[in-house]
Amino acid sequence: MLESLITSKTRLRILVKFFMNVATNGYLRGLAEELNESTNAIRKELNNLMDAGFLEKETSKNKIIYKANIKHPLFAIIQKIVRHHIGIEAMVEMILQRMGDVEKVVIIGDYANGNDSGTIQVILVGQNLHASYIDKLGAKIENEIKRKVEFFLMSDYDDDKGLVIYENHKPTV
Fold first, then answer.
1. Which of 44, 82, 102, 107 fits as disulfide partner to 126, beta carbons 3.0 to 4.6 Å?
2. Domain for residue 12, yes or no?
3. Residue 63 CA, distance from chain mean position
4. Do 56 and 108 belong together in one domain?
């Protein structure tokens, strides 16, 4: 869907890279290798996004490091569009509607690093989560978002690795 609006596949992949997880950054050669594109194609898109103010850069050890400009007035909207494009919004909605007792949803792996690899790894944290039901739900989610989804069920997860996309803050009594 977003491919019809943003016709440059390279630009779309760079937007996913930087707006999926704001902690993600990259440099020209690293992005070229990761996205399997020429440095010229990456440079062109980075420059276009910089000129529009969507990315910012800093120099570190003779490398120019790029990252999302979180101060841009459209930052939150672009991030929401990117997450909708990937299917994160729909996935969380389906999980919460049908699972009820989910305390936290964490994206790990490639998508936490902004790489649109086709397989989204998700940790579901909560008590009494039913694996068989989640398997069925996973198939429905995959059909909806057109990406493979792998769920990992845990009763607790305090690791700082991954991208927390939902957290239910229960009030302490």
1. 102
2. yes
3. 24
4. no
Q: Is the dihedral of CA 35, 40, 45, 51 positive or negative?
A: positive
- Does residue 81 fall inside a structural domain? no
How many of the other CB atoms lie within 10 Å of CB of 33? 12
CA-to-CA distance for 159 and 150, rounded, in angstroms?
18
For residues 81-105, b (16+ Cβ closer than 10 Å) or e, as one string? bbbebbbbeebbebbeeebeebbbb
Structure tokens at 92: 């969380």
Per the domain annotation, does 82 fall within a domain? no
Please give the residue range of the domain that contains residue 150: 87-167
The answer to the question of residue 172 being in a domain is no
Phi, psi of 58 (to 5 degrees): -145, 155
More confident position, 46 or 137 = 46
Helix (H, G, I), strand (E, B) or coil at 87: coil
Which CATH number belongs to the domain containing residue 55 in this structure?
1.10.10.10
With vertex at residue 106, the alpha carbon angle to CA 134 and CA 84, rounded to the nearest 5 degrees, is: 85
